[in-house]
Amino acid sequence: MLRLNKLSFALALGLAGLGVAQAGVSSVDIDKAPQQHDEQTDRLIVKYKDGSTVVQQRLGVAVQSQAVASDAIGARTAQLQQLAAPLGAQMTLLRQMGTGAHVYKLGKRLSLQELRQLGERIKALDANVEYVEPDRKMYPLFTPNDPSFSSQWDLNEATAGIRAPAAWDQATGTGVVVAVIDTGYRPHADLSGQLVAGYDLIADTAVSVDGNGRDNDPSDPGDWHAAGTCSTQDKGANSSWHGTHVAGTIAAKTNNGTGVAGIAFNAKVQPVRVLGKCGGYTSDIADGITWASGGSVSGVPANATPAKVLNLSLGGGGTCDTTTQTAINGARSRGASVIVAAGNENKDASNSSPANCSGVVAVAATDRYGARAYYSNYGSIVALAAPGGDVRSSASNGILSTLNAGTTTPGADSYAYYQGTSMATPHVAGVAALMYSAKPSATPDQITAALKSSARAFPGTCSQCGSGLLDANAAVTAILGGGGGGTVAETEPNNSISAAQSITAPVTVNGSMTSGSDTNDYFKVVLPAGKTLSATLTPASGKDFDLYLVDGSGTQLKASENGAGSVDSFTYQNTGASSVTVYVRVLYYSGTSGSYTLGLSW
Fold first, then answer.
1. Is the distance from CB of 581 to CB of 550 less than 8 angstroms?
2. DSSP code per residue over 5-47
3. Is 37 a catalytic residue?
4. Distance between the two ends of the chain, CA-based, in angstroms?
5. Integer Cα distance of 223 and 321 in angstroms
6. Of these residues, 135, 182, 190, 204, which one is catalytic?
7. Is 321 in the active site?
8. Could you say which residues of the chain have pLDDT below 50?
C-alpha cells in the first residue's frame, strides 16, 4: 500500500500515512455512466387519494401516509393485475410509502414507456388514483480512479478551493446532523465517532445484497456486480463505497493527526442506505428523504436524530417524479435543506432527477482551476458549483476522501480520489451544516439564498453553473447577517473580481486603500429581479477614489469619477426576470492613503 507524504495546510493538519484505494479499480467514463443502464424497471408506484393525509409541519404542510382498509387495497391490487396481465406482469403489493403511495412489484422488467401507458389505463379506470409512476432506478454520480499523492486542494487552495479554514473560525458544524442518502457506510478510523444511527431502507434483497430487507444496519456490504447484471450494456464494476467517500468529505475527523479533514468536522453524519447493487429504487430514496428529515415511514422506527441537511449524490434521467417531489416537500416543511448533485452527463440539468425537483440546491462540479468539470451538468436550475475534480491529467486533481480497500466485499480502511458531481455535492452539504451550526434558526430558503449570494466568481470558465463557486467562509458570514442593514469592515484581499467580498445590502462598508498594491476593492452583490442598486462612495477629506459597477467578466456597467473629496454615486436597475450578480469596484485614483465608506442599498 502506498503512503502519502506528510502534508500541512491552514489548519496545520498532519495528513500522514494516507493509504490509497486498491489497485485495479475500474474507471467509469463519467459522462456515459447513466446510459449504461437500460430504462426499465420492475416496480410501479400507485398513489391512491385516500392513502395520505396533509399534516402541518414547522415550515409548512407535508403529506404523510394513511392506512387503507385491507379489503379495499386487495380489490385494487386485483384490478391492477387484470390491467397488467397483457404485459406479462404479476402485480404484488410490496408496501406503502411514507408519503402514502403504494409500491407494486411487477415480476418482470418493463420499459418506462410501457409502464407510463399502463399508468394511464389505471387512472382511467379508477377515479381514486391520484398518480401512477414507474419506480425508476437512481445511481451514484461519481467516477473512481487510482489515487496519487496530494492534499485536499478543494478545501484550501486559493484558486478553486472553498476557503474552509477561514470558515472554521466561525463554525465547525456542532449540533447539526447531515444525512448521507447513499450506499451506506463502512466503519473507518477517520469516521469513528462521527456518525449517528442511520437506517437501511433497501427493501429488495437483490439490491441490498446483505441477506435481508429494511433494518437498522446501514453498513455497506459492497455494490459490485458482474458484467451484464444490471443491464445488457453494463460492463460490471467493483464496489464503490460511495457513501463512505461522501461522508468523509462532509465530516471526517479533523485535527487528529491523521487522515483527511471534513468540512463540518463537528457535525454528525447519518447514513441512510438506499443504493445497492445496480443502484436504488425511487421509492426507497423517497422514503429515505422522508425518514432522514424526521417524517414517518411505515414499519420503520422514528428517527431519533432528524437531519437538518440531506445529501443526495445520486440521480438519473427524466423529469422530477411526484413521488420524489412529495418527499422533498415534506423534508423542507420539517426544516431540512436538500442538496442534490446536478448530474454527470455534460448536459442541461433540467433533465436530471432529482436535481430538477423544486426546492433543492442543485450542485455543479468544478475542476482544480475553478472551471466547469468536463462531465458536469449545467443550466438554469443549478444553484451554484463546488469542487468535483477532474482526474484525466492527474489523480491528485480529484477529491480525496475516506474509502475502503475491498474490491467486492469490505477490506481495510483506505483513501481515494474520486471525481463527479457526487463529490461536489457534499462540499455544499458540509458548508450548509456550518451555516446551520452558526445559525440554528435558519430556514432552508435562507440557507439556499445565503449559499447563492455568497458564492464567489469562477476563476475559470463555468457557464450556467449557478451564482458562483462555493465559498464556505462567505456563506457562514452571509447566514449570520453579512452586514445586511448594518456596518461591516472591508476584508482583504478583495482586489479582484475572483476575490470579491460578498455583501448583503442594505449595508455600509468601512474600507481603506493605499497608493501601493491596494488600489482596487471589489464587492460582490446579488441584485434581485426588479430591484435598483444604489451605491454611494464617501472618501475621507481630500482623498480621490472612484466608483464603478462591473459584471463577472469585468465589463463596466456604471461609473462615477468625481474629483478629490467628492462623493461618487450611481444607481443600476436589474430589469431581468431573475437575480444577477454584479461587482462594485472602488478605485484608488490619487493622493495619499485614506479611508472611505461605501453605502449599498435597493
1. no
2. PP---TT-----SPBBPPTTPPPP-TTTGGGGS-SEEEEEEEE
3. no
4. 59
5. 25
6. 182
7. no
8. 1-37, 143-150, 483-485
